[in-house]
Design brief:
Helices cover about 35% and strands about 20% of the residues. By secondary structure, it is of the alpha/beta class. It folds into 2 domains: about 5-70 and about 365-405, Urease, subunit C, domain 1 (Roll); about 70-355, Metal-dependent hydrolases (TIM Barrel, Alpha-Beta Barrel), CATH 3.20.20.140. The longest helix is centred in the N-terminal third of the chain and has 17 residues, at about 120-135. It is globular. It binds zinc ion. Zinc ion binds near residues 76, 243 and 317.
Length: about 400
């Protein structure tokens, strides 16, 4: 089996759960041995040299920061078209919700995605995936939800599967059956259609998605509608997620706890009781601060959510509403607006995000995990959310192999 050594990491952050700051388990002058794509040993460069192990390749970090590859647990990156004019509409006083009500937003992306061919959607989305990889993402979740009907959702899922094969990184697919109500349906009619036709067909597919997600929000789908959808999804063998309380307290946090969701995402307006229930039921809280910025709404209370006992995860929420391809920007905002520490932000984009995808073999560099890591041209993890906007990702390794970043798209 192929052996790769990483040496001379000024700070090797393994996100293994211990150490100081808590959880980072950082090693000064760190080294790592990957065998067959998995982490086989972690320690200092000095210790590694003493062992005298023969390897096939060496990655020298030259004193720089090395972290696990980022895990992006929440994206809608599979779509066609764009909505850049919405920034002007918002500047003139329109809101996310009023744009949606006028047939824009998700409804417009659904029209554009339905018109596009599978090949075109895969090409446009592959470009976005490549940008994420350049910024250090090695595992990504991608949702459907712009299909509008059964054929559209199947086409999107196929596009996501193509991305998984072509992108060189792990792609987790989520069926987002309840995203917006297409024109010509009431919410209740569309729910019946999804439960009767779409969910059964999607969950019968050979490579069915692992997760099912829905948009629980005033004016979109109610907690009662989402509850029916999530129960049916669970019966169909999918693990559950929910877009909860982004714009208003819609009972999403309590619903996520009650249904035993893997994660509840957004949580900007959740009530304290719902968050405590989530903490008790071990529901991971996925925070998406760039989306709060793009939608012009308040930020989630990261400290309160953590105090309620929830593991925190961060994601880009890459979508036509908030076209964000940079984990570093998200971590910067998490530190400045949500008052998370750099260590908390990094953990939320690695181990915490992996938990939101029910994975423990990514988002950390423990022995046995995938050898997915990033060399940053930065001195330590505190710089990740601090010096942002330039290109500080030096090299990205997936399962012990260096990805060719110039060809990533
Ligand atoms: Zn979303």
């Amino acid at each position: 089996m192929r052996r790769l050594a990483l040496v001379n990491a000024g700070e090797l952050v393994t996100c293994s759960g211990g150490g100081d700051p808590p959880g980072l388990d950082a090693i000064e002058d760190g080294a790592l041995l990957a065998v067959g794509g998995r982490v086989a040993w972690v320690g200092t460069t000095k210790e590694f040299r003493r062992k005298g192990i023969k390897v096939d390749a060496v990655a020298d970090a030259h004193g720089r920061l090395v972290t696990p590859g980022f895990v992006d647990p929440h994206t809608h990156l599979a779509f066609a078209g764009s909505r850049e004019d919405e920034l002007e509409r918002k500047a003139r006083g329109e809101t996310y919700s009023s744009i949606l009500r006028s047939g824009g937003g998700i409804l417009r992306t659904t029209r554009e995605t339905r018109r596009a061919s599978l090949r075109s959607i895969a090409a446009q989305s592959g470009d976005r995936l490549g940008q994420l990889v350049r910024n250090g993402v090695t595992t990504v979740e991608v949702k459907t939800g712009y299909g509008g009907d059964l054929a559209g959702e199947v086409k999107l899922l196929r596009a996501i599967r193509l991305l998984g094969r072509g992108g060189g990184i792990d792609v987790e697919a989520t069926f987002m059956g309840l995203h917006a109500t297409p024109a010509g349906f009431s919410a209740a009619e569309y729910l019946r259609y999804v439960l009767g036709k779409v969910l059964p067909a999607i969950s019968a597919m050979q490579d069915k998605p692992r997760f099912s997600d829905c948009f629980c929000e005033r004016g979109v789908f109610t907690a009662a509608e989402c509850s029916k959808y999530l129960q049916a999804s669970r019966k169909a063998g999918l693990a559950l997620k929910v877009h909860a309380d982004e714009f208003s307290d819609s009972g999403g946090a309590s619903l996520a706890a009650e249904m035993g969701c893997v994660s509840a995402d957004h949580l900007g307006k959740s009530d304290a009781e719902g968050l405590r229930e989530m903490g008790k039921r071990n529901v991971t809280a996925v925070l998406l601060p760039m989306t709060s910025s793009y939608s012009g709404i308040g930020f989630a209370d990261a400290k309160g959510i953590a105090a309620a006992g929830c593991t925190l995860a961060l994601g880009t929420d890459l979508s036509p509403n908030s076209w964000v391809e940079s984990p570093q920007l998200v971590m910067g905002l998490a530190c400045t607006a949500l008052r998370m520490t750099p260590a908390e932000a990094l953990l939320a984009f690695t181990a915490g995000a992996a938990k939101a995808l029910r994975r423990d073999d990514v988002g950390n560099l423990r022995v046995g995990s995938k050898a997915d890591f990033v060399i940053h041209s930065l001195p330590n993890h505190r710089f990740l959310p601090y010096r942002v906007g330039g290109r500080y990702v030096e090299a990205v390794f997936k399962e012990g192999r260096r990805l060719a970043l110039n060809e990533a798209s």
